[in-house]
Amino acid sequence: MKFLDSLKPLSLLVLRTALALIFIFHGYPKLIHPSEGMREFFLQHGMPAYFVSASGILECFGGLLLLVGLFTRPAALLLAGEMAVAIWKVHSVRGALAVNEYEFPLAVAAACFVLATTGAGAASFDSLMLGDSGSKRSRSSKKSKD
Fold first, then answer.
1. How many CB atoms within 10 Å of residue 138?
2. pLDDT in tens, 8-59
């Protein structure tokens, strides 16, 4: 399985890119063209209307951070939290057993949690600027070489 291990940087790049596209696609309308219908939707689910703009900012800028791999861990953690709130307040109104109602935000939240715990990978600005490739092995081997 060494071949698959060598693909970790690419797999994390693909995951970050897919999540970034999803978040930017869903956040852009909330940020640029928030409608009264969107505000009403948030109010109906027990959230303040300004959460439309807050979620738009988080999704657009968080998605951009994921795309370039900068501050990936905190951005992914915030986005996972947003998805958890979305599942709790919006998608699970029929209960926890109605998985088909919240399967997409659950998958996105899980993917964000993976990025928050593993990091952006070697193909990222985190790795380039901060030395955070997300691999404990690479950090411990760097320490042992010093």
1. 16
2. 889 999 999 999 999 999 999 999 988 899 999 999 999 999 999 999 999 9
Which residue in 114, 145, 128, 129 sits closest to 12, CA to CA?
114
Identify residue 143 by its one-letter amino acid code.
K
Residue type at 57 in one-letter notation: I
Domain residue limits, the chain: 2-145
Does residue 113 contact residue 76 with C-beta atoms inside 8 Å? yes
User: Which residues, in sequence order, are CB contacts of 139 under 8 Å at separation 6+?
Assistant: 131, 133
Q: Tokens representing 14?
A: 């693909």
Read off the amino acid at residue 2. K
CA 78, 83, 86 angle in degrees (round to 5)?
130
